[in-house]
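$ ./design --mode recover --in tokens.txt
reading tokens...
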């Protein structure tokens, strides 16, 4: 089957799943369990069931599309998994937003926007497989921008929840480690290093979140500070994986980070009530 047909089928199925969320919501059901002598009931809402279905569609569809590329043959499952991260995040974000919108007009816009975002992300990921592809660089830059925007929304939401550090730090660890897989994916036989650096990124971000939870700062400032740290950590790791990490690059990231911190500090002092 041609690659374009696989792309169309994948996006169409995901869009259909999102339509089902508003046109034919699935009923909830509960699974009673007995764990260590205590009753435990697992509740699966209609949204959770659809989320599982959509994730399965995204994973099978995206993997089928990527395997049409000649350079993907023989590559390991951990490497192919890095292509599933961003499409899954986009699909789940679309479903989460969709269920909180009361008007059908907004819902249609979100569904169409999710389908368009999925299409662009999948096409860009395909273009990044071959470093010699003439569209490799713009595709990589666009993917980076989407990942950083997704990170900003997720980090701001987690920090704004003011949850206990054990919860918020764990959430940040999982979110940033998963998103870092997309940013740090490189050509060649470096899959192990990609996963290692993504894990280190998540751990560093979790520790920073734990520290920020002790600071009485605005949620917007906290989310932006986390994004700035995520940008610096993944940027340095990316340059190292590309073999381009030099003192000049480190200095550039340091200057950008310092400038960002100064801007956030200035913004924080001007906030009402500060």
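writing sequence...
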């Amino acid at each position: 089957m041609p690659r374009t047909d696989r792309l169309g089928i994948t996006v169409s199925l995901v869009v259909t799943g999102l339509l089902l969320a508003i046109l034919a919501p699935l009923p909830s059901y509960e699974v009673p369990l007995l764990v260590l002598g205590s009753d435990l009931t697992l509740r699966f809402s209609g949204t959770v069931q659809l989320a599982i279905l959509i994730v399965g569609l995204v994973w099978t569809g995206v993997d089928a599309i990527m395997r049409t590329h000649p350079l993907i043959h023989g590559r390991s499952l951990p490497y192919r998994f890095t292509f599933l991260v961003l499409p899954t995040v986009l699909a789940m974000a679309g479903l989460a937003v969709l269920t909180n919108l009361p008007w059908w007009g907004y819902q249609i816009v979100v569904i169409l926007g999710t389908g368009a975002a999925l299409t662009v992300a999948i096409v860009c990921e395909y273009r990044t497989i071959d470093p010699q592809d003439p569209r490799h660089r713009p595709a990589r830059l666009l993917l980076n921008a989407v990942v950083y925007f997704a990170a900003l929304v997720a980090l701001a939401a987690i920090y704004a929840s003011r949850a206990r550090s054990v919860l918020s730090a764990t959430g940040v660890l999982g979110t940033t480690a998963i998103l870092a897989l997309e940013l740090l994916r490189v050509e060649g036989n470096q899959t192990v290093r990609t996963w290692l650096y993504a894990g280190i990124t998540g751990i560093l971000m979790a520790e920073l979140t734990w520290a920020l939870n002790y600071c009485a700062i605005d949620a917007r400032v906290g989310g932006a500070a986390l994004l700035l740290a995520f940008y610096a950590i993944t940027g340095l790791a990316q340059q190292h994986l590309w073999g381009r990490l030099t003192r000049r690059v480190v200095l550039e990231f340091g200057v950008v980070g310092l400038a960002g911190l100064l801007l956030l500090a200035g913004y924080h002092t001007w906030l009402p009530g500060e």
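exit 0
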